[in-house]
């Protein structure tokens, strides 16, 4: 059993003629929390998409638990224990809350356990229980993110990638999101957090990766970050 | 009351058929996001194979298994693997053109395999049409009617259960919103897409086999026109509700029969209204059903950004030496073309080339509309017809010169275009396409049937124009005139592209919201461009009609509109050269194929262009741009750096 849950080595990727990542390599340990930071357009979301198989890299390799998954379709990568809550609206807007949850649970679990998982998810997020027959698109931004996390909480994956999960949320809702993330980490899931709120992400993460113009400029402990880097990270995000 | 019921009852089986097709449409739209205009064509394919099998003495169950249980899903599988899989995350326009290509190609392919003219009295599936089972208020209910109603009810029930209470149903519903999100939920989106296409094809096949005996004869056109009834039914269900779609289809069938019962017979309006009813209903639904408006504006795929942006057009790359070279080359080519047409080319080929250029004018209207503003119209042939009939009628009744008639034709077609576009545009791309389809079919059935417009099948005559001493009845002279008119239209299109409206349209294509926020009125720009496009199509139609010395309703039917869209999309919808190339390709292929092939293979042209739509789905830039790109890349490899405009 390897100690790395995700490894990218020499990954280049892009969209059409546009290249977003240049020779990106890093490892994530099992159960670790990593913050992926960098200015807008640095390629953070592209890293997330490559890791979950949404985007096939043009060069380099992607390994999940030591198994090469480069070029696999996303659903197969998901079956190896990688969950990805994409940026923006990570739920199906045209399905109701319950269907959103069922879609995931009934895929991963036998029928009976899936029903139990559904109950557990509603227990953990009572708001979702109240709105179980409401279309997910009509939920508030915070409730949508909670729904995305509720899917993950019931069946903890090996690695959860969250992309800008706190974007556009009220401070109190952000607290709630991070509390849920902490719970997910405590259940043994490794986290890769792409965040705008630098200080929030650094509170939770022990490992920090900084991207700049598609290249990694820092990869190491988040505790020993030099004051220089910290202020630089904070400076590129005046809003945090 | 008894009279009412006796008029209404025969509408039930029609209504059921409409409903069944509508449900098939809703199913594919919900699961794949593709509005499958080829649904009727798939139904036709199964019905044809069923007919052929039974005609060759097969027992009906065996024929049913081959045509519906085997053939239909296989067809769906092939379409999904070969085409729809690639367009799943593409824009509405690409999906529509892909479906249109199939609509044109499938019947043509099957008619090549089973060459037969009109096939009369197709066999019924299981209950005999001659046995009357019981009476409803004096109306005999025969086997076909009974089996249609029962089967439809069964299918609606089964599908509703599957859609809402099973895992595969849930996955199919999720697919409609975002295939990539489905993948992230750990579900293989490709398999779900494949399953839903096979299911909907099965439905199409079933509908086709059931439907054939209801109509009495087996023609691809029947099934295409029927599609609009199905669309109307689907619209009644807001494209999402199976029960409402069922009700809508049922009502449509019944009202149609009531109309034919109560309206006086023997007039154009009443004979055209019954087949035209679905189109009227569809237009009204599009305009007045507010719930529909919400459904049309599809929820955006949150993962749409994963797809690479379309590559910039070659014409957007600039390199001075290259541009100079290509301008000189193009000028020389045009000069060579015109000079040789005037000297050594045979008169029959001058006529063919004239046809090509007249068509190029009509195609240019699509370049303006689709290439520049991203809208799609399925009734350009109708606008062309409006132009031709206007010029013809003016010449016949008011002795107006055809040249002046062409100008009036442009105005009339433009005005009608604005009238069609104004209400439909609020609903977005798909709705506009469907509204134009309905309008086109309405014109086929009613508008062009009157003696004061197209005079139905017999048509009207349109003389050649004359200008002072010059009479254009000579083929070469008229060819020159067409070149001039085409050049004027090209100038108009280029002026619009370079001018304010063109830039507004470019902005609207990028983001309608952002464009509106800087003070661009989207409706105004779009209606304007739609109207100008209709006007150009009108000019093209008038020129074409005058070339042929006459035109009938058949020359400008809606099926032709669909072919036009596919042809232009295949050759190149973004540039003027695409339109001219499409005109030439269409005519040259047509002449080459129809001259050298037996009747059986005359459908090959449709197959080629239908499959061209597949190419379009994969390379939306079109053939002309593709060749240009290859040339450009060869140049760039030689070290000529090109600068690409963002």
Give a quick precis of the structure:
The complex is a heterodimer of chains A (240) and B (646). Chain A has 240 residues and is α/β, with parallel strands linked by helices.
Number of helices of chain B: 26
Number of domains of chain B: 2
Query: In DSSP terms, counting alpha (H) and pi (I) runs of 4 or more, how many helices of chain A?
Result: 9
Fraction of residues in β-strands of chain B: under 5%
The tally of strands of chain A reads 10
Query: Level of helix content of chain A?
Result: 25-40%
The beta-strand count of chain B equals 10
Whole-angstrom Rg of chain A = 17 Å
- Which range best describes the helical content of chain B: under 10%, 10-25%, 25-40%, 40-55%, 55-70% or over 70%? over 70%
Shape descriptor of chain A reads globular
Kindly name the structural category of chain B.
mainly alpha
Mean pLDDT of chain A: 85
Beta-strand share of residues of chain A: 25-35%
Spatial order of strands in the largest sheet of chain A: 6-7-8-3-9-10
Question: In whole angstroms, how far apart are the ends of chain B?
Answer: 68 Å
Q: What's the SSE pattern of chain A?
A: EEEHEEHEHHHHEHEHEEH
Structural class of chain A: alpha/beta
Low-pLDDT regions of chain A: none
CATH architecture of the largest domain in chain B: Orthogonal Bundle
């Amino acid at each position: 059993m390897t100690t790395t849950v995700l490894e990218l080595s020499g990954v280049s990727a892009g969209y059409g003629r546009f290249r977003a990542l240049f020779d990106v390599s890093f490892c994530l340990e099992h159960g670790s929390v990593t913050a992926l930071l960098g200015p807008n357009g640095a390629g953070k979301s592209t890293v997330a998409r490559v890791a979950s198989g949404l985007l096939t890299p043009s060069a380099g390799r992607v390994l999940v638990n030591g198994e090469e998954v480069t070029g696999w379709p996303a659903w197969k990568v998901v079956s190896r224990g990688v969950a990805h809550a994409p940026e923006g609206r990570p739920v199906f807007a045209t399905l109701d809350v319950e269907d959103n949850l069922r879609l995931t649970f009934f895929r991963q679990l036998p029928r009976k356990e899936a029903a139990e998982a559904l109950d557990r998810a509603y227990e953990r997020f009572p708001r979702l229980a109240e709105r179980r027959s409401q279309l997910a698109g009509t939920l508030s931004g915070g409730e949508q993110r909670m729904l995305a996390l509720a899917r993950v909480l019931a069946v903890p994956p090996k690695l959860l990638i969250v992309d800008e999960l706190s974007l556009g949320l009220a401070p109190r809702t952000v607290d709630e999101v991070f509390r849920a993330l902490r719970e997910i980490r405590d259940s043994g899931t490794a986290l890769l957090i792409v965040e705008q709120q630098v200080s929030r992400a650094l509170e939770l993460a022990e490992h920090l990766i900084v991207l700049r113009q598609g290249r990694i400029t820092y990869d190491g402990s988040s505790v020993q970050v030099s004051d220089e880097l910290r202020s630089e990270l904070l400076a590129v995000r005046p809003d945090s | 009351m008894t009279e009412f019921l006796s008029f209404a009852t025969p509408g039930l089986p029609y209504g059921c058929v409409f409903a069944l097709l509508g449900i098939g449409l809703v199913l594919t739209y919900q699961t794949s996001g593709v509005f499958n205009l080829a649904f009727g064509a798939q139904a036709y394919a199964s019905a044809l194979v069923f007919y052929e099998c039974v005609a060759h003495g097969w027992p009906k169950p065996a024929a049913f298994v081959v045509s519906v249980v085997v053939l239909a899903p296989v067809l769906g599988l092939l379409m999904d693997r070969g085409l729809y899989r690639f367009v799943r995350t593409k824009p509405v326009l690409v999906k529509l053109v892909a479906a249109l290509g199939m609509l044109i190609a499938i019947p043509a392919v099957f008619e090549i395999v089973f060459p037969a003219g009109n096939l009369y009295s197709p066999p019924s599936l299981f209950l005999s049409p001659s046995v009357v089972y019981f009476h409803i208020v004096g109306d005999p209910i025969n086997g076909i009617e009974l089996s249609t109603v029962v089967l439809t009810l069964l299918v609606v029930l089964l599908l509703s259960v599957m859609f809402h209470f099973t895992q595969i149903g849930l996955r199919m519903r999720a697919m409609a919103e975002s295939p990539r999100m489905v993948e992230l939920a750990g579900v293989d989106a490709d398999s779900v897409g494949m399953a839903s296409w096979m299911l909907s094809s099965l439905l199409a096949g079933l509908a086709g086999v059931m439907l054939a005996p209801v109509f009495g004869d087996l023609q691809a056109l029947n099934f295409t026109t029927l599609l609009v009834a199905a669309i109307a039914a689907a619209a009644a269900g807001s494209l999402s509700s199976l029960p409402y779609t069922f009700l809508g289809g049922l009502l449509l069938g019944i009202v149609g029969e009531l109309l034919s019962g109560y309206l006086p017979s023997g007039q154009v309006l009443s004979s055209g209204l019954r087949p035209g009813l679905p189109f009227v209903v569809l237009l009204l639904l599009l305009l007045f059903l507010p719930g529909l408006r919400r459904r049309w504006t599809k929820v955006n795929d949150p993962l749409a950004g994963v797809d690479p942006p379309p590559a910039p057009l070659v014409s957007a790359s600039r390199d001075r030496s290259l541009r100079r070279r290509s301008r000189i080359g193009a000028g020389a080519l045009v000069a060579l073309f015109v000079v040789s047409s005037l000297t050594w080319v045979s008169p029959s080929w001058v006529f063919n080339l004239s046809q090509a250029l007249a068509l190029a004018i009509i195609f240019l209207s699509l370049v303006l509309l689709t290439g520049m503003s991203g809208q799609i119209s399925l009734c350009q042939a109708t606008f062309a017809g409006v132009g031709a009939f206007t010029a013809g009628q003016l010449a016949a009744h008011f002795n107006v010169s055809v040249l002046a008639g062409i100008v009036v034709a442009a105005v009339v077609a433009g005005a009608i275009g604005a009238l069609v576009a104004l209400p439909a545009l609020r609903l977005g791309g798909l709705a506009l396409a469907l509204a134009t389809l309905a309008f086109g079919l309405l014109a086929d059935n009613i508008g062009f049937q009157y003696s004061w417009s197209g005079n139905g099948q017999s048509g009207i005559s349109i003389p050649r124009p004359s200008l002072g001493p010059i009479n254009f009845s000579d083929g070469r002279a008229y060819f020159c005139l067409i070149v001039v008119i085409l050049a004027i239209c090209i100038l108009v299109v280029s002026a619009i592209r370079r001018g304010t409206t063109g830039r507004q349209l470019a902005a609207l294509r990028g983001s309608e919201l952002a464009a509106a926020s800087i003070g661009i009125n989207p409706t105004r720009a779009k209606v304007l461009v739609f109207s100008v496009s209709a006007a150009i199509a009108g000019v093209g139609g008038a020129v074409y009609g005058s070339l042929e010395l006459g035109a009938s309703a058949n020359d400008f039917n809606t099926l032709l509109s669909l072919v036009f869209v596919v042809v232009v999309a295949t050759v190149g919808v973004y540039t003027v050269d695409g339109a001219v190339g499409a005109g030439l390709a269409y005519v040259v292929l047509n002449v080459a194929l129809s001259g050298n092939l037996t009747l059986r293979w005359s459908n090959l042209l449709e197959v080629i262009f239908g499959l061209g739509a597949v190419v379009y789905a994969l390379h939306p830039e079109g053939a002309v741009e593709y060749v240009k790109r290859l040339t450009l890349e060869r140049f760039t490899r030689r070290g000529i750096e090109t600068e690409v405009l963002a």
